Amino acid sequence: MGRIKNRQIDNLSLSFKEIWGFDKRLIFILLADVFVSALRPFPGIVLAGRIVDSITEGKDFLQAVFYVAVMYGMDYILTAAATFLAKSRDYLFARMINKLDNDLNSKCMNMDFEKFNDSSVQERILMVHQAVRGKNFFTSLTTFFNTVSQFITLIGIVCVMTVLNAWLLAIAGMVIALQAVLHYIRLRHERRYTQDAAEDNRKVSYISQLAKNISNKKDIVTFGMSSYILKKAELFQQEMLAVDRRRIREGGFIEMAAYSLSAAFQILAYLLIGQKAFRGELTIGEFTMGVASLINFMSASSFVTANLISFNDNFFYIRQYRSFLKLRTKFDRTPGSLTLNDMDIRKVEIEFRNVWFRYPGSTSYVLKNINLTIRNTERLGIVGYNGAGKTSFTLLLMRMYDPTEGAIFLNGVDIRNIDYKEYQKIISSVNQDFSLLPFSLAENIAISEAADPEERQKITELLKENGMGERLKKMYRGLDTPVTKTLFASGVDLSGGESQKVAVVRALYKNAPVLLLDEPTSALDPAAEHEIFQKFAEMSRGKTTVLVSHRIYSTRFCDRIAVFEKGEIAEYGSFEELMERKGLYYDFFEKQAEYFKETF
Fold this sequence. Notes:
This protein is an alpha/beta fold. It has helices at about 1-20, 25-40, 40-55, 60-110, 115, 120-135, 135-165, 165-195, 200-210, 215-220, 225-280, 285-325, 390-395, 420-425, 440-445, 455-465, 470-475, 495-510, 525-535, 535-540, 575-580, 585-590, 595; strands at about 350-355, 365-375, 380-385, 405-410, 415, 425-430, 515-520, 545-550, 560-565, 570-575. The chain has a six-stranded mixed beta sheet, with helices on both faces. Helix 2 runs parallel beside helix 7 (about 135-165), helix 6 (about 120-135) packs across helix 9 (about 200-210) and helix 21 (about 575-580) packs across helix 22. The model is unreliable at about 1-5 (pLDDT under 50).
């Protein structure tokens, strides 16, 4: 119990520090709200009885009017103050949600691919999102102050009720204790539901977004996926409903128990106060005051007991939030990690040494004993059937994953010993699943809102060199034209080939020493593809380049070619050497010969 109490104090102290560091005004607003909220019920409780007595006892009419004026005047002032404080609090709360959301977004954006691609991490993100949007530092502190406010109110009401009937104090204590037990059971039940439903919630959210995402629309229409996706949605919803059904049923029992407790207390209180009024021991006004006290007591006691329990529940989500932000990823710099300033990258040599790899949670190796050196400014082609391990090789090269066994070296240094952010600076890539942002064309390439004239000129030249010159002329705002209509109705939708050309330009604009092209022309027509590969030598000049392609003829421009088969390098050599060997590469080439024979 002592440990729990200390943890609560630590959590409360943490919330104070977080709020104080964010905006000190919030603390003062919450303190002021404590006193205003605590006082609000009392004008009605105390003065309502005096008004009734003034009327029933035939006293001066002006006295009754005075009591009414004071009661409503005080209520108006307190309500106005409470409204002002609430609106100020809501505005600052919205600002804090934005801050927490930005912190969460930053953590997600700066999380390496391997960890982010883990389904358990995705489920944690959903839970942490709840902390951001509801159960966070602000709500926990607000809950604490509101509890203090209602507790002050409760003490005043209990004092009033005790004067009317001393037995009510003992009964009130029992009610508060039982309410606390019921609220504890309810919150434990809701937390268990949240944890049990995390995976189902993720499935339902995904399928819901799938149905609404414009990028999926063409495939859905073309392949008649609508019924299939709707059936999947219903299946996931049914799984979610099974958990919901249990939650609702258990929650109903708890709510009925709480209502029964409340009703029993109210009946008993009415009998005790009414009996004294019937015997003439209380005036009608005192009886009215007792009824008003009773109503406010039930509201305040329920609020206090619920908040005392939910106070701990809030911190459960806060701990999840803080724990997630502390989650270590490859982006976290480790002591002794090297930066590019510690290395000479004017010449780049990458070596795969005895590399084995299997994906997390899998027992099958997708890469087996890879030994390969990519020399400075060398152009390496990677070919092989689907599932041969080509993309896995590129993921290791980009350090989206680390080898299960063995190591990858950059200029003799294990890349795991190089700062992750620094390592990413040396690689520029065009991936199979590349994505463009719904911002301007210039922003998609420069990844900046403020490209200077020289940078914009460079972007324009690269677009022209890669077959986008005419398309750029037709864009109504040139480089400032938004890509897609996701955010801006005035945006333009690029074709798949045009989007891929923009992705190639983005990779070239980064001007990194290592260029990785994973099926960079898959969306291009043959003529545009041929044009790109005619410029391949120029594009890759001075860069260490890795080209992954199903189009065998494209690797004709490479200095070395590695043929992957079942996760291993089956063949390795120059184009001429592999053709003379008449092995796998020769077979690939011959099978595609009719398609590209005229090109050569």
